[in-house]
Amino acid sequence: MSPEVTAAIIAASVGVLTLIGTLAAQYFGRRATSRDTQKALDEQREQLNKTLAEQRKQLERTLAEQRTRTLNERFRAAEFADGTVDFDHAKFSGGTVNFRGAGFHGAIVDFGDAEFAGGTVGFSIPRDWSVPPAFPWPDTPPPGVTFGINSPDGP
Question: What pTM value is reported for the model?
Answer without folding.
Answer: 0.52
